[in-house]
From TrEMBL, chain A:
Signal peptide: none
CDD domains documented for this protein: ABC_NikE_OppD_transporters
InterPro entries in the record: AAA+_ATPase, ABC_Ni/Peptide_Import, ABC_transporter-like_ATP-bd, ABC_transporter-like_CS, Oligopep_ABC_C, P-loop_NTPase
GO cellular component, one term: plasma membrane
Pfam families according to UniProt: ABC_tran, oligo_HPY
UniProt KW keywords: ATP-binding, Cell membrane, Membrane, Nucleotide-binding, Transport
Family note: Belongs to the ABC transporter superfamily.
Annotated ranges, domain ABC transporter: 5-256
Cellular compartments annotated: Cell membrane
Name used for this protein in its record: ABC transporter ATP-binding protein
Membrane topology, record value: Peripheral membrane protein
GO MF annotation, one: ATP hydrolysis activity
Database matches in SMART domains: AAA
Automatic annotation (TrEMBL), chain B:
Protein name, per record: ABC transporter permease
Main localization category: membrane
Subcellular location(s) of the protein: Cell membrane
Cited InterPro entries: BPD_transp_1_N (IPR045621), MetI-like (IPR000515), MetI-like_sf (IPR035906)
Tree of life domain: Bacteria
A GO BP annotation: transmembrane transport
Transmembrane segment boundaries: 98-122, 129-152, 172-191, 230-252, 272-298
Organism field: Cohnella lubricantis
Amino acid sequence: MRPILEVKDLSVSFDVFGGEVQAIRGVNFTVNEGEAVAIVGESGSGKSVTAQTVMRLIATPPGRIKNGSIMFNGRDLLSLSEKEMRKVRGNEIGMIFQDPMTSLNPTMTIGSQITEGLVKHQKLSHSAAKTRAIELLKMVGIPNPEVRLKQYPHNFSGGMRQRVMIAIALACNPALLIADEPTTALDVTIQAQIMELMKDLQKQMNTSIILITHDLGVVADVCDRVIVMYAGQVVETGTIKEIFRNPQHPYTKGLLKSLPRLNQSKDEPLIPIHGTPPDLIKPPQGCGFCSRCEDAMRICATEAPEVTTISETQMVRCWLQDPRAAKGAGMGKEESA
Amino acid sequence: MVGYLAKKFVFMFVSLFLLVTTTFALMNAVPGSPLQSEKAPSAAVQKNLEAYYGLDKPITTQYFMYLKKLAHFDLGVSMKKRFVSVNKMISQSFKYSLRLGLVSIVTSVLAGCALGIIAALYHRKFLDNLAMILAVIGLAIPSMVLGPLLQYLLSVKISLLPVTGLKEPLDYILPTLTLSSVSIAFIARLIRSTLIEVLSSDFIKTAKAKGLSGHIIVWKHAMRNSILPVITYLGFLAANVITGSIIIEQIFAIPGMGKFFVSCITDRDYPLIMGTTVFYAVLLIASRFIADIIYALVDPRMRTSVGRGGK
């Protein structure tokens, strides 16, 4: 499989009144052709900033890309001019946002919002773009596309609007689709439909997907690989199987424990991860998860863990898995707990 | 949509009727009579005059007679300038007020939008601060100060522009500037704050993610949403310009309607009081109605929500 997107050592900061918020601190990951990758993590872990940096959509200032490179199809997106970047956005990379209720322009028809990108990137004539828009609406499962094309966003329900957003994002057959929490604002039954749709379309069009979410249940269904982010860093990556069956990082384990399972009895409480993520204005010296980790060792507080390779596909950033750590480190506590 | 406009249209007449009734009552409640003057004519002349103007009849009869004439668009005959119809007085003087008013509304919208857009696009930079300082000055200086000040500086001191009158295009500059300063400032602040808000909204991010250029994003996506409050303001702007022009016309010696509006009350010129009030009221109500229509044209949500009878 050919890598389509390679993010290397990416660091992004935001200059705010209180100082510099280091939202992303040295993120590395790869997305291969035709692959669906999930980025999971809690609010403030840097998922959305990562995605928006790939699209170069973060406002600078206050945002600042400090370091790193984003190789997309052999080009470094960070070195492109704004004009060149505009040819990538919407054309080679499509993006879907969290809230379909506010992501469409309320004063423009759905049709003109879909055709806009087609006319710009593929230089289609107005009528050809319209034909393509009808095709797209059919593809995302909107009945009566000829009529719906002339309607405005307020004539659509939330789920339908998200379908329109998907149609807009996929209009120019992008090689990569970034979906930033596409189902968070939708109710559960609609969530399932939207995820199903994205899965189908991915197979049809062989698009790579980056799915940003904090819902691990959604991930298992759609994605091939998972990237777990915490406090602006990638703490673990692996295939779906590896992450769900054999999680290595205490944070990943915590996330999985806090998920309800079907065979769980009603009285059995879910186990949350206690505490809050660190303040990224003053990121901790050691591991970001240290203060919340039940298995933390002395070194965790003072030195940042390095990446440990577990298998060809699984990597973790944790002292517990470091080959230099004592065998069975942190295990005692877990047994007694 | 049609039903909504029809409803608005009916309400226009209801409010106009209430206005006519109130003005008529208030006018008659004021002591004094239009035919009283220092040089009192003889009793016979007085009586004839009263009969001519219908003042000898009971007030209710006078009221219904007025309504009947009004329904035929007849505003009566002035009592001060005898035998000159109010319709004629208004039509002769209003053309000046209308010209100045229209020029001023167009200037307010164009200049206000331009200042506001510049301020929003250069948010927190030099141009934003400059535009907002200008806006505060515009809001703070009343027209009776600004007008003479501009006359003194630009006409008397450096003889750049004519001091008074309204004949040549150049004549329009000073009165327009004086009349529009408040509304330019108001629209600039309105556009600035809405545009800044709209530019940070989600659908602008969607537009950016489509790869659209900055120009298209601002003009096609953001402006249409930012202009809505300005349209709402247009109705008030018309009122502002109309009432404001009363003072401006005095300052710049423009033979507009404003002078009648003031003098007719001290003269107790009943038909002229009623005529100017009704005329101004129709203008105001009509401009609000037009603003409503424009609003519905720009915002598709208005069309359906009012079409369904909601909102």
